[in-house]
Amino acid sequence: MRADLLVHDITCLTTCTPGAPDLGVLECASVAFLEGEVAWVGPAAHAPDADEHIDGSGLVGLPGLVDPHTHAIWAGSRSDEFRRRLAGVPYSEILEAGGGILSTVRATRAASRQDLAAAGRARLAGLRSHGVTTVEVKSGYGLDPDTEARILQAAWDCNDTVRVVPTFLGAHAIPPEWRHDRAAYVAQIMNEQLPRCAPLADFVDVYCDRGAFTVAETEAILGAARALGLGIKCHAEQVAYTGAAAAAARLGATSVEHLERVDDAGIAALAEAGTVAVLLPGAQLYLRDSAPPVAALREAGVPLALGTDLNPGSSPVHDPWTIATLACLLQGFTIEEAVLGITRVAGAALGRPELGWIGPGSIGDLALFAPPPGEPATVASLVQHMGAHRAVVVIRDGVQVV
């Protein structure tokens, strides 16, 4: 076999292959790509020849990273809100004054598809520079049929930057113009927003929590989404316990997000359904919140993924490696769990089992990282040293993009 591209002599290749022990680490390894796919992985001494070569000496190789939870397309800024919250102003007061998510909704409604796509590309290019090749992008800052569709269209426009998995999140908040009749807004989501946005989305998500949507409303929206053939997700048990995690799992949710206050029944439901828990330590840090019950989730066998939750307010985090480090420090993840949380398990959270690992049958994505200065070329050093790594090569579908 002659390959199109050979990445050779990678000092430490972490394949994250399903069933492999110790993350599937190979020393002095090579990866060959043919017609955009992974054709061969193994010792560098036995690598096939190729038309193009990339030297991986001194570098750490990983699958293209996967970010399974972002809100990466929005307009406007909430940096002034950040300053006010640091000064002790409660978010509820900021929200009542028209700030918070409502300010983002106003700015996003006023933005064109082109402007939204340009902002999204810039943010997603930043993620790509950290080795990310696949990103879930949620809507949710329009809260009306036209803007929600425009956000998802802009997300599709960003596929030239990373592989985008679009998720409809019209049930993100109750907009001010509907607060007098929330039942009418739920009906609008189900009868107008959802049919309009379904062709543009792979998943539908609902924010079920105190001050947001109820469990009954969540079940109705997710049930309608499932009837349209869409995958379902749910923001659950973040601010208050609601029972949303168990309800979403019973409906067949691919993933449930946040889970800071999930109970034992919710954990058991997630485990029984095989639903992935997407944990978001960036939001925990910015909101000064408590950690989800990681030990109980682990013991029950719930798959654990990690997302940046990249958004303009509660988690303006642009680097999955920072999230991996925070997961270890704040939530009790092991290094191995954190790496799988931003690779293979993150792919499972998107219903894409070909993502987040390297081998024949995987997606043709690879990222090479220079270790922190003075550190060995190991994945542990990338997790330990926050902000000290850099992706020197990123390959998507067998083509070098960084």
Protein described:
- By secondary structure, this protein is an alpha/beta fold.
- The protein is built from 15 helices and 16 strands.
- It has two domains: 107 residues, Urease, subunit C, domain 1 (Roll), CATH 2.30.40.10; 285 residues, Metal-dependent hydrolases (TIM Barrel, Alpha-Beta Barrel).
- α7 links the parallel β9 and β10.
State the helical fraction.
25-40%
Strand segment count: 16
Radius of gyration in whole Å, from Cα?
Answer: 21 Å
Number of domains: 2
Individual helix count: 15
Please indicate the percent range of residues in DSSP E strands (runs of 2 or more): 15-25%
Specify the CATH class of the largest domain.
Alpha Beta
Q: How would you classify the helix and strand content by structural class?
A: alpha/beta
CATH topology label of the largest domain: TIM Barrel
Give descriptors for this structure.
TIM Barrel, 2 domains, 402 residues, alpha/beta, Urease, subunit C, domain 1, eight-stranded mixed beta sheet, eight-stranded parallel beta sheet
SSE diagram, text form:
Blueprint (H helix, E strand, L loop, with lengths): L1 E13 L10 E10 L2 E7 L5 E7 L4 E4 L1 E3 L11 H8 L4 H6 L4 H10 L2 H17 L2 E7 L6 H13 L5 E9 L10 H16 L5 E6 L6 H13 L3 E6 L7 H7 L4 E4 L5 H10 L2 E4 L1 H6 L7 H7 L3 E3 L13 H12 L3 H7 L2 H6 L16 E5 L8 H6 L5 E7 L2 E2 L2
Parallel strand pairs: 1-4, 1-5, 6-7, 7-8, 8-9, 9-10, 10-11, 11-12, 12-13
Antiparallel strand pairs: 1-2, 2-3, 5-14, 14-15, 15-16
Helix pairs in contact: 4-5, 5-6, 6-7, 8-9, 12-13
In short, what is this structure?
The protein has 402 residues and is an alpha/beta fold. Helix content is 36%, strand content 24%. The strands form two sheets. Strands 1, 2, 3, 4, 5, 14, 15 and 16 form an eight-stranded mixed β-sheet that branches. An eight-stranded parallel β-sheet has the order 6-7-8-9-10-11-12-13.
